[in-house]
């Protein structure tokens, strides 16, 4: 009997009897994981109303007390880490070590945000007038919508939810449909922590129905969205109609630049992890290797040799290096890009769906490497799969030119032993994140995360920057002179 979940609204799990439902599947085996409600616009509106009712009391709750609740949620996640990691792996397909990493990132971030409850810093600055005090305070926005993808099915929701909650907002959470079971675990942590009813609501269902309702509804004051660039653009345009704050975290086409003085064995481990970890389905995945001509052939030899011993299979098996891609949609999109690559570039490794035996039940794609000129589609468009485009360059200037000549700007990396060049690259690379002697992945929760160009619209998640996303800055003037003082006018005449 398939496990069945309802919506979480006003602190209760409700299962509307006539609801349309959808199921999630294990992308490695095809087994059904669980069944969920495909919510209607009315049900989405009920969740918005619940969040709206809960807002005044939550806003009044002192932020350190909100932090206590977050700490309890983090403890719940910590106690159930292994169980939740297995759900992540079964539903999304990343290997178990990465499933654990997903949950650990959630724990780290929720704990970090709990501490923000004792900060939420504003500024105090001098006034131009006597006996006058000027400061800023941070206030919540109100009801916020968190719309999330499937690739970090607990970490990305927690990035948004914990930052929104500590800031005093109430939430309607709409997860990606294919990882709805993971979303249930996210919500359960806050439920177990004693979050008051209505502060966090979960509405499962399609983006075009539930997501669209959340974006259009006048009581939703902010939308935090992570997903594909086309959907993100649509969300931005529609959110603009309501003059809402829309935070977008979209894709990447992240380069590793490998210079001729790089530590090649170190870079090998980094490129393998960056390109093929999570089957390449990270927004920060290394999808381009910009390789100096002097080390081009030796490095590619090393890379393909290591891939020969790479193990694909059930991601719950600890010996497996790479699991399936997340869904049939993903498989088809990636295979379509591989077909394009075969037309416009030279296939160096892989390049096919993995078939035979147990593989036939899942969505497995070989780790794939293309040697390509810069400018081809596979060298410029986000593939979001285990496909690495290798581009030969003859010096640093060309490497940076190639690295920057894409529409995205999320993560970037350089391997070099030349300290001057490393610092040069920190300035030159057009991206929100630059790594030196490490691959393009490896975010830490206490630092801002986000990118430039088509990667987003200027905001940053994580770190203390996350608070900016979910708060309004109020400026306060306190005049204790007991007389009317006029800024600009009195200050001018006193000078
Ligand atoms: O994302 P979508 P998908 C990229 C990646 C991937 C592609 C498609 O290239 O192959 O996007 O993935 C909700 N209004 N990334 O289809 O459609 C949707 O239900 C409001 C990169 O999964 O963008 C889900 O909750 N919401 C990315 C969320 O948006 C809508 C991570 C993301 O779905 C909506 C994921 C609508 N009209 C995908 N339509 C990254 N940067 O890491 C859909 N949604």
- The Cα radius of gyration reads 24 Å
Profile the largest sheet.
Answer: 7 strands, mixed
Low-pLDDT ranges: none
Percent range of helical residues: 25-40%
Mean pLDDT: 97
Mind telling me the CATH superfamily name of the largest domain? Aldehyde Dehydrogenase, Chain A, domain 1
**Overall body shape:** globular
The helix-and-strand class reads: alpha/beta
The strand order across the widest sheet is: 15-16-17-14-13-19-20
Secondary structure elements and their pairing?
Blueprint: E1 3-4, E2 7-9, E3 12-14, E4 21-25, E5 32-37, H1 41-60, H2 63-79, H3 81-92, H4 96-116, E6 124-125, E7 132-140, E8 143-147, H5 155-166, E9 170-174, H6 180-192, E10 200-202, H7 207-216, E11 220-226, H8 229-241, E12 245-249, E13 254-258, H9 264-276, E14 286-292, H10 296-308, H11 328-344, E15 346-349, E16 368-371, H12 377-380, E17 387-393, H13 396-404, E18 408-409, E19 411-415, H14 419-428, E20 433-436, E21 452-453, H15 465-470, E22 471-479, H16 489-494
Parallel strand pairs: 1-5, 8-9, 8-11, 9-10, 11-12, 13-14, 13-19, 14-17, 16-17, 19-20
Antiparallel strand pairs: 2-3, 4-5, 6-7, 7-22, 15-16, 18-21
The structure holds ligand TXE.
Compact description:
The chain has 495 residues and is α/β, with parallel strands linked by helices.
What does this structure look like?
With 495 residues, the chain is an alpha/beta fold. The protein folds into two domains: 3-250 and 456-476, 3-Layer(aba) Sandwich (Aldehyde Dehydrogenase, Chain A, domain 1); 254-436, 3-Layer(aba) Sandwich (Aldehyde Dehydrogenase, Chain A, domain 2). The protein has 16 helices and 22 strands. Strands 15-16-17-14-13-19-20 form a seven-stranded mixed β-sheet, with helices on both faces. The protein has a five-stranded parallel β-sheet with strand order 10-9-8-11-12, sandwiched between helices. A hairpin with a 2-residue loop joins β2 (7-9) and β3 (12-14). α1 (41-60) packs across α7, α2 (63-79) packs antiparallel against α4 and α2 (63-79) packs across α6. The N and C termini lie far apart (81 Å). It binds ligand TXE. Ligand TXE binds next to α7 and α8.
């Amino acid at each position: 009997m398939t496990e069945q979940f309802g919506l979480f609204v006003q602190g209760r799990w409700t299962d509307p009897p006539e609801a349309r439902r959808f199921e999630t599947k294990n992308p490695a085996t095809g087994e059904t994981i669980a069944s969920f409600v495909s919510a209607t616009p009315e049900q989405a509106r009920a969740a918005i109303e619940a969040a709206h009712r809960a807002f005044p009391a939550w806003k009044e709750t002192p932020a350190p007390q909100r932090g206590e609740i977050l700490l309890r949620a983090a403890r719940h996640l910590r106690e159930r880490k292994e169980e939740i990691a297995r759900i992540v792996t079964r539903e999304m397909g990343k290997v178990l070590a990465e499933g654990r990493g997903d949950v650990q990132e959630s724990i780290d971030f929720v704990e970090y945000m709990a501490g923000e409850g004792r900060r939420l810093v504003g500024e105090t600055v001098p006034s131009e007038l006597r006996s006058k005090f000027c400061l800023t305070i941070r206030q919540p926005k109100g009801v916020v919508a968190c719309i999330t993808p499937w690739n970090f099915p607990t970490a990305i929701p927690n990035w948004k939810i914990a930052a929104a909650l500590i800031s005093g907002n109430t939430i309607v959470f709409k997860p990606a449909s294919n990882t709805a079971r993971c979303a249930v675990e996210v919500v359960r942590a806050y439920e177990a922590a004693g979050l008051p009813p209505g502060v966090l609501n979960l509405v499962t269902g399609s983006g075009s129905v539930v997501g669209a309702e959340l974006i259009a509804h006048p009581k939703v004051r902010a939308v935090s969205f992570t997903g594909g660039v086309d959907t993100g653009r649509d969300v931005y345009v529609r959110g603009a109609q309501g003059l809402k704050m829309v935070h977008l975290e979209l894709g990447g086409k992240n380069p590793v630049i490998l210079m001729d003085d790089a530590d090649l064995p170190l870079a090998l481990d980094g490129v393998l992890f960056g390109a093929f970890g999570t089957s390449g389905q990270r927004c920060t995945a290394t999808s381009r290797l910009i390789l100096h001509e002097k080390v081009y052939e030796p490095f590619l030899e090393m890379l393909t040799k290591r891939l020969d011993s790479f193990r694909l299979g059930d991601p719950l098996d600890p010996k497996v290096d790479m699991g399936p891609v997340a869904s049939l949609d993903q498989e088809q999109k990636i295979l379509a890009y591989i077909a394009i690559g075969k037309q416009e570039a030279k296939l160096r490794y892989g390049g096919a769906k993995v078939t035979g035996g147990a593989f036939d039940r899942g969505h497995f794609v070989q780790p794939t490497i293309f040697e390509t000129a810069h400018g081809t589609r596979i060298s410029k468009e986000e593939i979001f799969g285990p496909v690495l485009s290798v581009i030969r360059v003859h010096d640093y200037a060309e490497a940076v030119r190639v690295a920057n000549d894409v529409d995205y700007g999320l993560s970037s990396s350089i391997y070099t032993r030349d300290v001057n060049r490393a610092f040069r690259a920190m300035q030159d690379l057009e991206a929100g994140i630059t790594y030196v002697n490490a691959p393009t992945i490896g975010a830490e929760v206490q630092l801002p995360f986000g990118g430039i160009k088509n990667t987003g619209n200027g905001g940053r998640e994580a770190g203390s920057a996350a608070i900016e996303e979910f708060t309004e800055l109020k400026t306060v003037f306190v005049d204790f002179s007991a007389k009317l003082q006029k800024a600009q006018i009195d200050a001018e005449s006193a000078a």
